[in-house]
Amino acid sequence: MGLTDGRGKIIEEIVEKEYKMFESLIVRDLDRCKDNPRTFKLVRWAYFSVFSNEALQSYLMDLEEAEKHNRNLLEEKYARIDELIPRIKENSLIDKIVAIRLEWMRELASKYPYTFQMDDTSFTIYLRSELETYSDRTLKLIYRDLQKALKEGKNLLKEQYEHLFSKVGYNSLEEVERRKVG
């Protein structure tokens, strides 16, 4: 599952740390995901595949710091999604990151409606809950990555899903869409 630019090792370390946290969760709705660690790891690998080296290193440090303090960032994320705990942090970059990624997801849903069924609310809650577990340093680096992508006319969510679908045997999002329609 590696990347040729050296980020693959960092991503795999991140995904392993996240999966360890994920495995310890006691949430009935997530039991199906726990039964298929390969799917969890593929999806998370694809998510991180579009992060810069700096953002990856920063998030890895977030995970290591959380481990030192016996924090489970995935437990916090899912508790936020279910509104079981109050906001973990306030940072204006969270809203900015959510806005950019939401627009990218809307673009994908418009172009590939059978592959991406869009629900703005669920998408926003999930992403916001995840971002609240990141350090301010990591948020700043991710925002920088998104700004760079915007300037270059890239949609990082499209790249993320292209990476994911290529790992399961598809050549393009167009091919995924054709199979969903047919």
Structure, explained:
This protein has 182 residues and is mainly α. It has one domain. It is 70% helix and 0% strand. The longest helix is centred in the middle third of the chain and has 20 residues.
Short synopsis of the structure:
The chain is mainly alpha-helical and 182 residues long. The protein is 70% helix and 0% strand. The protein is globular and about 50 Å long.
List SSEs in N-to-C order: HHHHHHHHHH
Question: Structural class, from secondary structure content?
Answer: mainly alpha
What is the CA-CA span between the terminal residues?
29 Å
Oligomer: single chain
Strand residue content = under 5%
Q: Can you give keywords for this protein?
A:
182 residues, mainly alpha, 10 helices
What topology emerges from the helices and strands here?
Layout: H1 7-23, H2 31-34, H3 37-48, H4 53-68, H5 73-81, H6 92-111, H7 120-131, H8 136-151, H9 156-167, H10 173-181
Helix pairs in contact: 1-3, 1-4, 3-9, 4-8, 5-7, 6-7, 6-8
